[in-house]
Amino acid sequence: MLLLLTAFSAIIAPFVFLVLLRMPARKGMLYSAIIVILLGFFVWGLEFDILSASILQGTHRAITILFILFGAIVLLNTLKHTGAVDRINEGFRNISPDMRVQVVIVAFLFGSLIEGAAGFGTPAAVTGPLLVALGFTPLAAATTALIADSTAVSFGAVGTPIVVGLSNIEGAGIAFFQDIGIKITLMDLLVGTLMPFIIILVLTIAFGKKKGLSSALSMLPWALVVGASYSVSAAAYAYLFGPEFVSILASITAIAIATITAKKKFLLPKATWQDALADGFKAETKKSEMSLVSAWSPYFIVVALLLLTRIVPAVQEFAQTAIDLSWNNILGFEGVGSAWQVLYSPGAVLVVAALISVFTQRKTLKVFGQASKESLNSIKGAALALVPTLALVQVFTNSGINANDLVAMPEYIALSMASTLGGMWVFVAPYLGILGAFITGSATVSTLTFSPIQYNVAMEMGLNSNVILAQQVAGSAAGNMICVHNVVAASAVVGLVGKEGEIIRKTLAPALVYGLLIGIAGTVLLWFM
Fold first, then answer.
1. Distance of alpha carbon 302 from alpha carbon 306, whole angstroms
2. Are residues 45 and 474 in contact, defined by beta-carbon separation less than 8 angstroms?
3. How far apart are CA 387 and CA 37, in angstroms?
4. pLDDT digits (tens, 9 = 90+) for 16-32
5. pLDDT digit string (tens) for 377-407?
6. Cβ–Cβ under 8 Å, residues 449 and 412
7. Main-chain phi, psi angles of 280, to 5 degrees
8. Are the CB atoms for 121 and 485 separated by under 8 Å?
């Protein structure tokens, strides 16, 4: 029992401090990290050297995330100074002034496009500030941006959660990855189709003046059309092309359909909903002289550069090797390291796009300098929260290196769940994925960690292993909503450092519902296998 409590301490402590006691992450995660480190030392048998290596690893990983945050904020601040944000907002208001429409197009669909190209928590860091610029309260922006960055995560960073996350499964290869991708999209015919409505539901109930369901239900027909346009096209793209470009192509397809239907007010209610407007927000009424293409061009550049550095071999090799600040085999422990190929990082791409925008939008470098100074000030608070958060994560992950010959804490949790809940595994599998992403902050790492256990349980229970592995990936995507360091990042970019617990309280229910829907969809899929 003591071992199980120790293993779960990495989950229980953050929940208690952030959600129940409502501490800011810089305090709550520091206390959580101290508890996990002490239990790791005294109970799990982690020696001082591996604890030190894990803390250093976490600190290095925190710096890589802060670089992405800096890039996202500096791009937005630069575009504020050039006037591009005002023009982007004008464009969204021309599509629809309704915040329910805007949150679906910006957070879910544009966020899915960024997820498909970059992954690694980048979408919420980009879309959250955009929503704030549209007038959303910071809490509404951060919450909906995190919830929206879910369905696309299964195929994020050009298919990484599948191609890398499942690479340690016997028989892994192109046909295997494609079959997993198809099964995920088949489950998403339920879950992905409902996501726009779920986002609208959270927005209207949590941030609306009227607490009933009417404001959400009136959007149900349009939300289902948009959700279906994403999920149905995703299934087709997975079948035709494999997992790498599903999120990118499906989001582009759905953006076109959402924009056209919204402009024509097809299936939309007559009343415009703007209850989540920040106090005192006033939209710019002066018509911008900048073209919409010019205003959006930095984001086009972001997507183009991300794809170039990930699918063109020569460019990818240069980006990965030109400036490599990775730290491998920390303190001599093989496999304990942190990758940071600077030019390959989404942070570098975002900074480059900000620099280019200064020239394409005919401003001076002084604008970029001012934006950089503002952005550095914005991420100071996030740094204090991210370092202990990532230290906790790495101690938890590296806990298999111990003097007591125990398996790592994540594996211990999974094995305990398998022994007691094996009979209902089709509903447990998604939550194991969520659990892994909640702790590690990565759908890929969650899948790498838990996929062998998911595979073995499926084989023992006589279940279709590919369905269970697809549930693992889809569940880990939902874990993005509540992952502590994603929440820290999302709160930092909208100026809500210290409100992380409040955000998790609002994203927890959607994450749990998402897991249940994956369980239901998996059950249906198993009936037809």
1. 6
2. no
3. 14
4. 999 999 999 999 999 99
5. 888 888 999 999 999 999 999 999 999 999 9
6. no
7. 80, 0
8. yes
